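User: Hi! I'm working on a homework problem where we have to compare a predicted structure to a textbook description. Could you give me the structure for the chain below?
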Amino acid sequence: MPSATFDAGESRLLAYLSDALNPTGTGRNLFFAYHLDLTLHAQALADVLSSPSTASKSIAARADRRFFWNRVMAAPILDAGGDAFVLPMIVGSIGQLADVPAAAHGKAVALTLTLLARRSADRAGTRHWRRGTDTSGAAANFVETEQLVSLDRGRVVASYVQVRGSIPLLWSQIPNIKYKPTTRLLASGSPTSASFDAHFDALLAKYKGVSCVNLVNQKGSEGLLEAAFAGQAKRYASSRSAALTYTAFDFHKELGARTTHDVELRINGAVRRARALSVLWSRLQPEFARYGQFMTGTQHNSRQEGVFRVNCVDCLDRTNVVQGLLGRHALEALLAQLGVLGAGDDLATVLPQVEQQFKILWADHGDDIARQYAGTGALKSGFTRTGQRTIGGLLDDGVKSIVRYYLNNFQDGHKQDALDLMSGAYRVKRDVKLTFQRQHSPLVPVLAALTALGYAVTSATCLALAHNASGSSARDSSSSSNSSGSSGHSIVVALGQHVVAPLLLAAGLLLLIGRHGRMLVDRPQLCPQLAHTVAAAESSAAAKQH
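Assistant: Happy to help. Predicted structure tokens:
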């Protein structure tokens, strides 16, 4: 039997698919289970199992489509009625602390704490190539986090669900070599409102109540996003549903040097997380109490009637700190209901060993989510782990920021194509030959600029040393003034040739790189239009006007 042959385009697709499923590459953190639907949180699964009509369905037939990552790849089998042979895969994170002893006030329990993240396959992608929502309301970097607690080997099960997702507006931040790419936000209008409405209509249908917690800066480009988000949320709450609430909290301002290095904050366990976060908690507490959490196996079973939707710009670093705060309060509320914690007690003071393990679990959770979207672990993970900012943590954040810059500009195009192929954003079409554009590398101009800069610095150093040496010899000899004048002229000429000219060349090359940065980054080629939501909406609006 002759072996299959593939053209260049098909070979590229196979390489993308291999990377998407590679557990050490883009396919890290793929999970499946034989007898449990990982796409459903505990409350949704309980609802499914409570009805004979849905309980009898296969796992694939009743899965949450948002988190069913192999749904498109398995479509031929599903369409043929073979759903019993398909196991849904999720992308996300699973971490667990098993049989953690918690004893206080004469009450002792052994709890198993599981933290599970489900990343949406809709608008899936990388940090700068997928921002905001698309016109259907799907948000980039949308992740459902479920905190599961089981006691007495499963007799009592509690589930607390939160979500995160990119700011639900039509906005983009296309890589262009610069450290912070230009933020483009579509002006308020029907496309933005329609996308916003579709996003929250779907969330409210799924979770009943949604409380948005926006952690971005309230100045600069982030301030523009915050103001637009606040305006849309106010419009939606007044015209469509009051079940949507909105809270803005400038994380960097509130947790700046004024509080982050406060003495009490540096002493682990002296305060609840941080004094600044307690201000945020006081604002979120009413919704937290109203939403509750899912609980079964106790005398007072309960349901969760709403979720917090937390975001910053990337929905990674700041978001993880606040979601960890909410998760800790959910655990404290559960332990208080079981009598392990008394009124006014908290984990840090009563159960410090549980608190420490809980922090590590949440920090690992945030790292997993961040690696999938940004390429590195989360920034501020040291704060999540210890409750304080240290020099080591700041250095770690600096290294991660540099690595993110490199990956986001020079590696993420390939990764985005792999994700688009796996998630079904790109559909392979028969008899359509796929061609890929040749991409320009910034390596040559960058190396030339660095070489010119290095040459200028080296030349300046050598000239300075030579000038000092000639000055010393001149003082020790009876040189004429003509000789010193000639020497000064030659130094000026040498400076112009070997220092100024290379510096001008380096500056010109760097200016050229910056001006054409978008052409030098690694760009996705399968679905490039999905990154340019603002440009597409503006073009569509202009076409309608004509």
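For your comparison, note the following. The chain has 21 helices and eleven strands. The CA atoms of residues 255 and 277 lie 8 Å apart. Good luck with the assignment!
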